[in-house]
Amino acid sequence: MPYERETASKGGHSDLVRNPDIQAFLNDCQFLKQPSDEEARTIARSYMPAPATGTLPARVVASDASPYSDPIDGKFPSTQVGYVKASLVLVNVKQFQELSPPGSRFVDPFKLAALHRNADSYSFALPGSNIRYKGAATVKDGFRRAVWDQLSDERTRFHPSGNEFTVRGTLLALESGHAGLRKCPACGLGHPQGMAYDRFEFTRGHEVQRCEDCGAEVYLTDTLRIHEQVTDFGDCTSAVTRFMNAVEHLLIATFVRMLAHHQPQVLADMAFVLDGPLAIFGQPASISFPLVSFYHSIGEELRRKGLRPPIVIGLQKDGQVMEHARSIAKFLPNGTFRVVDDEYRNSFIAPVNNSNFGTETYFGQDFIFKTEKGSVFTVGLPYPAAQKTATAEFSRLKADIQVYGENLGRAFDVVRHFELDLYENAVIPVALAHRHASISLTPGGKVLDLVTKNGLANG
Ligand SMILES: [Zn+2]
Predict the structure, then answer these.
(1) Count of C-beta atoms within a 10 Å radius of residue 399
(2) How far is the CA of 183 from the centre of ligand 1 (A)?
(3) Is residue 12 part of a domain?
(4) 148 alpha carbon to ligand 1 midpoint, in Å?
(5) What is the pLDDT of residue 292?
(6) pLDDT digits (tens, 9 = 90+) for 223-246
(7) Where does a domain end: 164, 199, 232?
(8) Residues in the chain with pLDDT < 70?
């Protein structure tokens, strides 16, 4: 009876939870509860000493994105524009080490500010309710056009030449050069021979097509299907959030592709830290499948060259896994970790519906890691497989820590290195990216300066 001593709060919410109908409803719900001490001790026994390699990558790229949606004018609150700001921070690990004088736990704020200037940010704007971008027939068509314009322009270009290393190039590359779309996003008509066929097939040089039925322009970026959530008068917040989530992962994948092609030895000595799980949610979720294959093939390609794969980390600071991790944290010895396999997730975190968590959305595996200093993180690493499947075998493989090899220790080393007492459960590149997100926008395309100045784009 957790509500007995609660006093009436704003809005009479506590009256509601005392209502017998609501109580009966809550009794029928299963949800995450604080484990008893005994349960937590039992869970903690399955944690193992966290591996370390004692090596660090030369450079760490941290990314972070935030969505906003605002009325375009105070007088017309239902006329909305959505914004996404994505920040990338490149941290030279050697420079970072120079930030704190030997023996000190504190970082020099002036040097930190200088590091901060190595950050770059991308801003995107998307039309919401009541806005017709470039004279489009509907808000949705304008939204599609805006997504295409912004994901194919300078903004996401990671190399001076051509469109290969833009998000547009990455979308094609992830689908081996042929991206299909089942039906026209404007009129909804599919292939004349049935929905088993793609109505449109996008290839290099044919990224924009015209629907023969309705005449609408159809774009490669429509394969992300984000526009499906957009209506003429509805709130665009959820579409903007989906866009943000997909774009953050596509930007990093584009950066990785460019380096794999032009500077593989630089890539091999890099880590990428993303804010949030390695997963794509909602309509664009299907790109989580090619992303599994993509990171696997990059690793194989580098291995063939005698190089190591880059470290890719999805760092979660909230969400169900972190809530669970915090609830047992005091029972975990420092310097331990555990793979969040489907059985563990099902027993202690949330029911796994189809016996294979993340089949539709994730491209990386979560691990709970308690550092030697006592902070708890949820760390995601790309699935170590050429393909993601919904099989029991995949469920076992993704949780087999042997398959991750030294990548696990390398990832934990990055987390250990950037863990800072100043930020509770935060990693500094992520903190840097967050701070950067609050600074005024810089023009797009600046990543080229960033890359050039760091000697990464001379290939
Ligand atoms: Zn059409």
Answers:
(1) 22
(2) 8
(3) no
(4) 17
(5) 98
(6) 999 999 998 888 888 999 999 999
(7) 232
(8) 1-14, 31-32, 95-120, 354, 420-459
For residue 82, the CA-to-ligand 1 centroid distance in Å is: 25
Instruction: Say what the pLDDT of residue 361 is.
Output: 96
Number of domains comprising the chain: 2
DSSP-based helix, strand, coil % in the chain, nearest 5: 40, 20, 40
CA of 185 to the centre of ligand 1 (A): 7
Question: One-letter amino acid identity for 196?
Answer: A
Alpha carbon distance 84, 167 (integer Å) = 15
Instruction: Tell me which long-range contacts 358-361 makes (C-beta under 8 A, separation of at least 24).
Output: 358/279, 358/288, 359/388, 359/390, 360/285, 360/286, 360/288, 361/279, 361/280, 361/281, 361/285, 361/288
308 lies in some domain: yes
> Which residue type occupies 65?
A
- Backbone CA torsion sign across 414, 288, 384, 397: positive
Reported as a single tens digit per residue, the pLDDT across 20-64 is 888 888 888 776 677 899 999 999 999 999 999 999 998 888 888
Please report the pLDDT score of residue 103 as a whole number: 56
Rounded distance from Cα 7 to ligand 1 centre (Å): 57
pLDDT at residue 352, rounded to an integer:
78
Residue 220 Cα, ligand 1 centroid: separation in angstroms?
14
78 CA distance to ligand 1 centroid (A)? 28
Taking the C-alpha atoms of residue 381 and residue 410, their distance in angstroms, rounded to an integer, is 11
| pLDDT given at position 236 | 84
CA of 198 to the centre of ligand 1 (A): 13
Residues pairing with 378 in the sheet: 316, 368
Dist. CA 59 → ligand 1 center (Å): 46
- Å from CA of 237 to ligand 1 middle: 26
Find the 234 Cα to ligand 1 centroid distance in Å.
Answer: 22
Examine the domain organization and report whether 96 and 214 are in the same domain. no
Confidence at residue 101, expressed as pLDDT on a 0 to 100 scale: 58
Same domain, 340 and 417: yes
- Residues 308 and 433 both lie in one domain: yes
Interval between CA 235 and ligand 1 midpoint (Å)? 24
- 59-71 and 270-275 strand pairing: parallel
Q: Which of 232, 260, 284 is the last residue of a domain?
A: 232
Distance 177 CA to ligand 1 centre (A): 23
Domain span at residue 351?
32-126+235-452
Residue 282 has what DSSP assignment?
S
Indicate whether 265 and 380 sit together in one domain.
Answer: yes
For residue 408, the SS3 value is helix
Cα 212 to ligand 1 centre (Å) = 7
Return the amino acid letter for 400. Answer: D
The whole-number pLDDT of residue 454 equals: 47
**How many angstroms does the Cα of residue 142 sit away from the middle of ligand 1?**
14
Residues 166 and 259 in one domain: no
In eight-state DSSP terms, residue 347 is I
